[in-house]
Amino acid sequence: MKIVEELKKIIIDVGKKLDLQISESEIKIEHPADVNFGDYSTNIAMVLAKLEKKNPRELAELIKNQISDFQFPIIEKVEVAGAGFINFYLKAEYLIEEAEIINYEIEFRNKLNENNVGKTMVIDYSAPNIAKPFGIGHLRSTNIGQAIYNIYKILGWNCIGDNHIGDWGTQYGKLVAAIKKWNEKDLNELTIEDLERLYVKFHKEAETDEKLIEEGRNWFAKLENGDVEARKIWQKCIDISLIEFNKVYQLLGVKIDFVHGESFYEDKLENVTKEIINKGITKKSEGAIIVEFDNMPVAMLKKSNGTTTYFTRDMATIKYRLENWKANLIIYEVGVDQELHFRQVFETAKMMGWIPNQGMVHIAHGLIRWKTGKFSTRKGDTIHLSEVIDKAMEKAKEIADKTTVDKKLTNTEKEEMIKAVGIGAIKFNDLSSDPKKDVIFDWDKIMSLEGDSGPYLQYTYARCKSVLNKTQIKEQKNINKIIGNINDDEMALIREFYKFEEKIIESADRYSPAVVAEFLLSVARKYNEFYAKNRIIDQKEETFRIFLTRTTASIIEIGLDLLGIETVEKM
Fold first, then answer.
1. I need a labelling partner for 262 at 20 to 30 A (CA). Which of 17, 75, 437, 485 fits?
2. What is the spatial distance between Cα 478 and Cα 196, in angstroms, rounded to a whole number?
3. Residues 6 or more apart from 458 whose CB is under 8 A from it?
C-alpha cells in the first residue's frame, strides 16, 4: 500500500510540473490482470484527457517521461500501453526482499502492525440464540467474524470479540410458556433438542391459538420483572445452550473473548432509556416510546406493556462498548436481514453523539441456503452444524483413504488430518465468498483437491512441506546475492508474493476475508504451475526454488491462520 501512496504522490507532483490539476481521489492504481502489463497500472491519463481535451496516449507518454525523472529506486521501468495506461514494473530485487520478510513471520507481523498500535476494534459476531442447536445459519457470522478479528489483530489493532448471544426478549417468554405447557421432563434432564422441539411446537400451535402469543408476552414481562420461576427456567435454557455452543466453538477452533448476551444489559436499560428520552429524540405512540427517523420506519424503545426491545438493548450495548472498552471502531457481523435494524441503531447513536471516532460498521452477510431456499427454525427446517461437521469428516476420510500418505500416518495423525481438512473445507467454502453473497452448500466443490477449496490450499501447503523436508537447504538469507536467471514460472510467483501485505490491508478495509482467500488461491495455483514444470531438488537452481517453496508455504500458513484454518503437513 505504501507503493501505491508513493506512486500517487509522484503523479500529483508530475501534474504540477505539467500544469495539470490532479487530485489524489482521481488517481486509481491497480494490479493489471495480465502481468505482462506490469505490477501496477493507472488510467489517470485517460481521465485527465477528457478534462483537458487531449489525446490520452500522448498525455500518458508525457506523464511517463516526467515520472522517469523522479527517483523511485524500486521501479524497474515505466511504460505506456493501449489507449493510455501507464504501467509500472517493480525490480526483481525488491520483490525478492519483500518475499524474504514474509519468510520471517515476526518481521512481517511487525511491518503490518506498525500503523495501528493503540487502536481498539470491538467486533460483535457469532451471536446464536439460546435454546436452539447451533445451526449452520450462524456459521457465517462465526467464521467471518473470527477471520476479521484475526485480520485486524495482525494489523496491530487491539481486538475485542463479543459474543452477543440472543438470550432475552419476547421469544424467551414464549419458550418459558412452552416449557410450562408441554414439558414432561425434569428441568435438569432437558436437552438442546428438547428446547428446539418445544420452540417449534409453540409457533405451530400459535397458528391456531392466538392466546398463546399473549401468554408468551406475559411470561417475558414476568421474566423482566424478576419472577423466580420464569428466571429459573430461563437460566436453565442458557446453561444447556452454552454447553452446546462451546462444543461447536471448540470444534471450529473459535475462541471469543466475551459472552455478553442481551440479558447482560438488563440492569443498564433504564438509564439508557432515560438518556435517550432526555435527549428529546423520542415520542409516545399508543403507549409505546418510539424514535422517529426521516427516511426509515420508527424504532421502538419501549413497548406499551413496559418491556424493552432488541433496539433498546443494542443502544445499551453501544454505550457499554464505548465506555468500558474505549472502542475506536465497532463492527457487527450479523445477517443481512438485520440491515434496517442496524441503520436505526447507528442513526440513533449518531443523534446521541455515541459514534466512535472510526465509526460503526454492519457486515450484512448473506445466507447459507438449501438449493430450495433459506432455513427456518420456527418451521423446524434447519441444518444443525454438528451434522454438517460430521458429514465433512466423512468426506475428508474418503479423501484420506484414497491416498498413499494415509498409510504412512498413525491413527492419531490421521484423525487430526481428517479433522483439519473437514473443518477447513467448511470454513473456506464460507470465507472464500464475499460476505454479502449467499452461499449454497455443494459438497463436491467444498471438498475438491483441485478446485477453489480449503483442501486444495492444505494440499499445496503439504506439497511445499514435502519438498522442504527433502532439501538440505534450511536457512536462507540475502537471496539476491546468489540467484542467477529467473524463468517465467519463478517470476510469476515472485510477482505475486509482494501483494500479500496489501491484500491483508484490503481485506480489513473491505471487511471481507474473501480477499485473503482469493489471494491464497492465486499463490497456490502459481506454485503448482511452477512445481509441475520445474524440478527443485538436486538442481543448480535448488536454492532459489526452495526459497520460492518456503515463501509459498509461509504465505499459505499465515493466510490460513487468518482464516482460522489449520494447515496439514501430510495429506
1. 437
2. 61
3. 420, 421, 424, 560, 565, 566, 567, 568, 571
- H/E element holding 4? helix 2-17
3-class SS at 369? strand
Instruction: Using DSSP, state whether 529 is helix, strand or coil.
Output: helix
> Quick one: average pLDDT of 241-254?
92
3-state SS, residue 179: helix
The pLDDT value recorded for residue 391 is 85
Please answer whether residues 76 and 38 qualify as being in contact, where contact means their C-beta atoms are separated by less than 8 angstroms: no
Q: How many whole angstroms separate alpha carbon 123 and alpha carbon 260?
A: 12
Residue 120's pLDDT band, with cuts at 50, 70 and 90, is very high
Q: What is the DSSP letter of 79?
A: E
Taking the C-alpha atoms of residue 105 and residue 103, their distance in angstroms, rounded to an integer, is 6
Residue 491 grid cell: 517470476
pTM of this prediction? 0.91
Q: Which of 282, 316, 317 is nearest to 300 (CA)?
A: 282
Tens digits of residue pLDDT in 324-365: 999 999 999 999 999 999 999 999 999 999 999 999 999 999
Q: Give me the residue spans of the domains in the chain.
A: 2-90, 169-253, 385-562
Q: Which CATH architecture group holds 2-90?
A: 2-Layer Sandwich (3.30)
Q: How far apart are CA 416 and CA 250, in angstroms?
A: 14
Q: What is the DSSP string of 445-508?
A: HHT-SSSSSHHHHHHHHHHHHHHHHH-S------GGGT-----HHHHHHHHHHTTHHHHHHHHH
- Nearest Cα to 331, choosing from 427, 435, 438? 435
State the chain's mean pLDDT as an integer: 91
The residue with greater pLDDT, 443 or 171, is 171
CATH of domain 385-562: 1.10.730.10
Provide the 3-class DSSP secondary structure of residue 130.
coil
Hey, what's the cell of 169?
426478549
Instruction: Write phi, then psi, for 358 (nearest 5 degrees).
Output: -115, 15
Give yes or no for a contact between 556 and 464, defined as CB atoms under 8 angstroms apart: yes
Q: How far apart are CA 54 and CA 99, in angstroms?
A: 41
**How much of the chain exceeds pLDDT 90, in percent?**
71
Residue 377 has a pLDDT of 47
What pLDDT shows up at residue 404? Answer: 64
